[in-house]
Amino acid sequence: MQEVKKVITEVGTNEWQVVVFFLGDQSFAINVDKTREILRWPGCRVIPDSPGAMIGITSVRGEVLPLVDLRVFLNVGSKIEAEQSKVIIAEFNEVKLGFVVDAVERIYRINSEDLDSTLTGKYLGEWVLYVIKRDKRNVLLLDYEAIVQHISPRLSIANNWNPEELEALTSEIGNPADFRIIVAEDSPLIRAQIKDSLASGGFTNLVICSDGKEAYDRIAHGLDEGKGFDVLITDVEMPRLDGLALTRRLKENEATRDLPIIVFSSIMAQDIKVKAASVGAKYQIAKPEISRLVEYVVKVIKEAKAA
């Protein structure tokens, strides 16, 4: 077993850490905050009728975990036998599982500006979010939330608002469509789920951004035109400007310091919540709570009205 040791980075500096690993000849990365430990091959028990990449289950110190072979999922050829492979134990979105990989290199400290999204959605396929330029090579950062939800659709986020609940919830703020909400999220899947969740509550006046820099520019541009926003909803991990750096920058600007901010992440551990609160985020929630975003948005709007 290899424990993942994290280096504490200053809050809101746009820096974070990734674990670099190999599938075949290609380097990939996963955020260190999603990673709990790295194991030698722990053995695997096959489960009947499981999806192809879900190769079975294993036990780690008495805890039963599913194993996802990323080589199978991404159709990457490998010469490494299962017994020589490594398993990255990951935890995010309240799900804990093992990713089977060829080998693990090390932890790198990177800046969000190191993430290149110019090929995203065009040539990288639907599972690769970014290219990290590192040591004269290209390291691919995957959309792990999308991969896991594709393998197990039951983990997708559902919205179950009925008209009576919705009317009771929003009755004190008026028409939800009157409020301008800006969202910063890099995953296309999660962007769609946020949009659906908010729309289910009547919040349809949305501006959706793919990273923190785009969101910051749209907020600044809106102020110039006299069209401010009522709420910002932002992810933490994003290129160019991550969610904590975005929040810090907005709170340090007199013109935007009063904008209510909801920070959410697939890795909303206690230390992330503390960091988000320290830079001025009103609420810190986990991505499985996206279905409750309407509640949080109504809450911050009511608080802003009462202030």
What does this molecule look like?
The chain is α/β, with parallel strands linked by helices and 307 residues long. The protein folds into two domains: 2-154, OB fold (Dihydrolipoamide Acetyltransferase, E2P) (Beta Barrel), CATH 2.40.50.180; 157-306, Response regulator (Rossmann fold). Helices cover 26% and strands 31% of the residues. The protein contains eight helices and 17 strands. The strands form three sheets. A six-stranded mixed beta sheet has the order 1-4-7-8-6-5. Strands 9-2-3-12-11-10 form a six-stranded mixed beta sheet, with no helix packed on it. Strand 5 and strand 6 (63-69) form a beta hairpin. Helix 5 packs parallel to helix 6. It starts with a strand and ends with a helix. The mean pLDDT is 85.
Topology:
Layout: E1 2-3, E2 15-23, E3 26-31, E4 35-40, E5 54-60, E6 63-69, H1 70-74, E7 86-92, E8 95-101, E9 103-111, E10 115-116, E11 128-134, E12 137-142, H2 144-151, H3 163-170, E13 181-184, H4 188-200, E14 206-209, H5 212-224, E15 231-234, H6 243-251, E16 261-265, H7 270-278, E17 283-286, H8 293-306
Helix pairs in contact: 5-6
Q: Percentage of helical residues?
A: 25-40%
**Quick one: CATH superfamily of the largest domain?**
CheA-289, Domain 4
Main structural class:
alpha/beta
Q: What is the succession of H and E elements?
A: EEEEEEHEEEEEEHHEHEHEHEHEH
The poorly predicted ranges are none
